[in-house]
Each structure stands twice: as structure tokens, then as C-alpha cells.
Amino acid sequence: MGDLKVVLIGLIVLFAIVDDSEAAISVKAFRRIIGINRNGPYLGLVVPNSFEMSHLLQSSLFVEDERFPQLDFEGRRFRIGRLGKEKVIVVMTGLSMLNAGVSTQLLLTLFKIKGVVHFGIAGNADPNLQIGDVTIPRRWTHTGLWYWQRFGDGPNDELALESSGDYTRIIGYLNVSDYTTMMKVENGVSFNSSNYLNSVWYQSEEIFPVEGTPEVRQHAFWVPVDSHYFALSEKLEGMRLEGCVNATTCLPRRPKVVRVGSGCSANVFVDNASYRQFLRSKFGVTPIDMETAAVALVCRQQGTPFIALRSLSDLAGGGSAQSNEANIYAPLAAQNAVDAVVHFVQLLSH
Ligand SMILES: *[C@@H]1O[C@H](CO)[C@@H](O)[C@H](O)[C@H]1NC(C)=O
Ligand SMILES: *[C@@H]1O[C@H](CO)[C@@H](O)[C@H](O)[C@H]1NC(C)=O
Ligand SMILES: *[C@@H]1O[C@H](CO)[C@@H](O)[C@H](O)[C@H]1NC(C)=O
Ligand SMILES: CC(=O)N[C@H]1CO[C@H](CO)[C@@H](O)[C@@H]1O
């Protein structure tokens, strides 16, 4: 697999030399990639935003590579270096599933990567946990691939294209009418009025794993993290995390690292108690974010070990505060995620 990649890159370089002006990837970039890969394999560190990444880059344990500190490629910056003893490549994805998927795929296509650690902040759907806690779910799902059912149809009506395996009623649905607050009163009897939005049915992703046949789809709803990484992450439970934003603003208790069942992602910033409760009761999720499932799905298809650490920055609409808590606690949560990641990478290299 690795050898094949080297041969392929060699071939592409050859073609690129023939006509650099037409090549999608410049000779210069490929030379650097080959140079970088010679020192691999690396652990890929994938992070959504710069304020989450900056805490990592500022860590005293992060040292950038002297020869190839970074490679800018198709709008992404890949930062090469070491985190303690571990050789790492750090990439910032930008917000959302598309950016996370594209960046992770580029990382795995261009570089020799032995595993991916994803980290950042998240909304929290578990009332027993607190802002600042770092969660490590056993599995992830994308809860943003929907079949929006037509008005008038119910749970017993087949979805269009269901019989050909495109869509399914196995996973479940959210009926928007269940959340109607306006009551209808007819003949003195009040009842909840329906609305035209009917139901959205949750769907699995179509995936095309490298070990499969191209164009022959498989389906994935839950994507488990790497079992070795998950077992190792147990050692993070009990590590000391920061509990104060400054001298006067502290969390009610010191935050902790916890391994949990599930997390979910979609192109939706959840700041709404009703939807948060639905995601919790239907799918049992703790962190709710906008990228992890995309990273997980790419790693699943590439056969690359993967784990995600997400610190809780807000209650996804479940708090009593007037505004979303992320405004105050996001920096603290971001620092806690990085502290846990640094600790995890040290465990990996032992
Ligand atoms: C959703 O609620 C409407 C009533 O508002 C009902 O007619 C429909 O059958 C429900 N759909 C499902 C999938 O439960
Ligand atoms: C209307 O829906 C709400 C929320 O689901 C429920 O608590 C309430 O009992 C319902 N009322 C009627 C009259 O069906
Ligand atoms: C600490 O942070 C809080 C929340 O951001 C802020 O309201 C407060 O003024 C800060 N206190 C100090 C001493 O900086
Ligand atoms: C922004 C928004 O629509 N928020 C709603 C989320 O859900 C709660 C009830 O659970 C409503 O009170 C909010 O208005």
C-alpha cells in the first residue's frame, strides 16, 4: 500500500515534469511531499478552527520540522513537526462536514499517516456532564443526511427509492409536528395542530472503502473509533484539567476527561434545547459538533485508525443562560481538548 503510493507519486511527478504548467500538482509540491513522507509515518492531527489549533501550536511540546515546517496545498496548510516524541502533521479543516472531509482526505492521500487524532470543542447533550469536560466517544454518526417525508405520509408509508436501498426507515425520524406549540381549538376541544413539515428520516452515509469495489456502495450510520486508541484513552480519565477562565470565573467543579458512548455531527450549530434532547434520547449522544463524523467517515473508508477528543463548550441550547455559553467558555474548553490530546499522543508514543 505504502510502496504503491510512492510509485504513484513518482509517476505523477514524472507527468508533472512533462508539463508543469498543466499539472494539477506542481513538481515543487510533489518534491516536498516526497521529502516529508521519507520521514514518515506521521500521526495526523485534524482540528476545525484556528483558535482550537493555536493552543496546540503554542504547546511547549510542539516543535516544527526544521526542513519542511509546512506545506500549503489547495488552500490547506499542513504543519509538519513533532509533538513530544511523535512525528505529527497538523491540519486545520475550517467549519463543517465538507471542509473536514476534504482536509482529512487530502491528509491521507498526500502523506504517510498511521493514524488520525481529531479534536476540538462541542455542544453537550448530556445533562450529567459539564462545560470544560473532555469527551471521547466510542462511535460517531452523521445526523445530517435526511429524507424529508411528504405531508400526509406516516411511518407505515414506504419512502421513495427505499426499495432500491437508497433510503431507509430503520434508523428513525423526527416528526416536526411533535414540536408544535400552537394549539388548535375546535368545538371547545384543544389538540396539537400538525404542520406541513411532517417528518425527517435519518439516513446512513454511502461509503466506498478502499478494501471494497469502486462504485459499489456500502452503508455506515455509526462509525466506531479505533479500539486500540479507545482502550488507551482510558488512561486519560483522571488527568488534571483547567477549571477557570481567569482568577474570578471558574466552573462549579474541576473538569474531567470521560469516555462516552456516542457523538454526532452535522452542518448544524445546535443551540436549541428541544433538538438537543431529541438527539440525546434518540441516539444517546454526548458531544454534538459539525466535523467529527466527516473525519471518521473518511478514516473508515481509508482504513486509518481514528479517535476524536471533543471538549464541551456549551449546552447546545440546554443552558439557562441568556446567551450560548460558548462565548465565555470556548477558550477554556479548547485548552482542555489540547491538554488531553497532548497527553494522549504521549501515551501513544510510549
Ligand atoms: C408526523 O405527524 C403527522 C401529523 O402532524 C402525521 O400525519 C404523520 O403521520 C407523522 N409522521 C410520522 C412519520 O410519524
Ligand atoms: C401537545 O404536545 C405537547 C408536546 O409534545 C404535549 O406535552 C401535550 O400534551 C400535547 N397536547 C395535546 C392536547 O395533545
Ligand atoms: C473573567 O472572565 C469573565 C467572563 O469572561 C469576565 O466577565 C470577568 O470580567 C473576568 N475577570 C477578570 C478579573 O478578568
Ligand atoms: C432558537 C430557538 O428556536 N430556540 C428554541 C429551542 O427550543 C426551546 C424549547 O425547548 C425554545 O424555547 C427556544 O425558543
TrEMBL record:
MF term (GO), any: catalytic activity
Domain of life per record: Eukaryota
Keyword Repeat in annotation: no
SUPFAM superfamilies: Purine and uridine phosphorylases
Nucleoside phosphorylase domain location: 43-344
InterPro entries the UniProt entry points to: Nucleoside_phosphorylase_d (IPR000845), Nucleoside_phosphorylase_sf (IPR035994)
CDD domains found in the cross-reference section: MTAN
Assigned keywords, A-Z: Signal
Name under which the protein is recorded: Nucleoside phosphorylase domain-containing protein
The organism of origin for this protein: Acorus calamus (Sweet flag)
